[in-house]
Automatic annotation (TrEMBL):
InterPro entries from the UniProt entry: Acyl_CoA_acyltransferase, Diverse_Substrate_AcTransf, GNAT_dom
Domain of life: Bacteria
Residue ranges annotated for the N-acetyltransferase domain, each copy included: 4-148
Name the UniProt record assigns to this protein: GNAT family N-acetyltransferase
Keyword terms, alphabetized: Acyltransferase, Transferase
Single GO MF annotation: N-acetyltransferase activity
One Pfam family, short name: Acetyltransf_1
Length: 148
């Protein structure tokens, strides 16, 4: 089997990133204006403790997955928390370890700076992803509320 390679996003990944992120948004029945794509791409390469970061996964030389994550302060710890904001694997590679490899990359990167809490959300109907999440993490039982 071909090895999954996970690495930080590079400027040269723009077309693959846009394709994968668009597919992710479509999966969640969401559409964002081009301005949000532009500012997000810029932020992914802006230095700063709280700017979003990203990884891309390749399989056989083809970009097949991505994740965005960011650090934020917490009143519960001296160290930041890490929110894994977006995670996506092309449908044709699901079940081959791409999602797990991306999660592990975020965990390892966060661990380098002492972060002890990496967390994320998914929709309750996302049963395919939840099988992976139930395997690699613990479900906290918290319910999300959103004001806007």
């Amino acid at each position: 089997m071909t090895e999954i390679i996970v690495r930080p996003l590079a400027q040269s990944d723009h077309a693959d990133w846009q394709r994968l992120w668009t597919a992710y948004l479509i999966f969640y029945e969401t559409k964002l204006p081009e301005d949000v794509y532009t500012v997000t791409w810029k932020r992914l390469f802006t230095a700063g403790e709280f700017e979003p970061k990203g990884f891309i996964a390749t399989l056989g030389g083809k970009a097949v997955g991505l994740t965005h994550y960011l650090y934020h302060r917490s009143c519960w710890s001296e160290k930041n928390n890490c929110y894994l904001q977006d995670l996506f694997a092309d449908p044709d590679v699901r079940g081959k370890g791409v999602g797990a490899a991306l999660i592990e990359a975020v965990k390892q990167e966060a661990g380098k700076i002492g972060v002890k809490n990496v967390y994320w959300m998914t929709h309750e109907t996302n049963t395919t992803a939840r099988k992976l999440y139930d395997h690699v993490a613990r479900r906290t039982g918290f319910i999300e509320y959103d004001l806007m």
